[in-house]
Amino acid sequence: VAPTPAPVQPTSAPVAPTSATANPTLPPFCTASSSETAITSNLRKPTGRNLRAGSTCTIEVATLLAIEHDGQEQEETFDCRMNDFDLNGLSSQILPIAATEAQKKQLLNMLRKGEIIPGETELKIGGYSVSSNGGVSLPPGQNVAESVRQNTKKNKRKLAVHTGDKPILVVKVTDMCGLARSESPAQIGDDIFGTINDPVNLKSQMSACSFDQLNIIPATLPQGTQAAPGVIEVTIDISLTNNDRYAIHNAVTAAVNAKLGFNLPGDYQQVMYVIEKCYVGCGWAAYAYINSWMSVYQSSYYKMTGVQMHELGHNFGFAHSGGLDGQTYTDHTGLMGNPLYSDDIGKMCWNAAKTWQCGWYDDKKATFDASMGSKTFRLVGIANYDNNPENLPVVIKLETGTTTDQFINFNRATGVNSQNDEADDEVTVVETGANGEGYSQSYLKATLVQGESYQYLNWAGTGQTLTVMVTDIDKDTTNPDYVWTATAFVFLGDLPPTPAPVTPTAGPPTPAPVAPTPAPVQPTSAPVAP
Question: With pLDDT > 70 as the criterion, what percentage of the chain qualifies?
Answer without folding.
Answer: 81
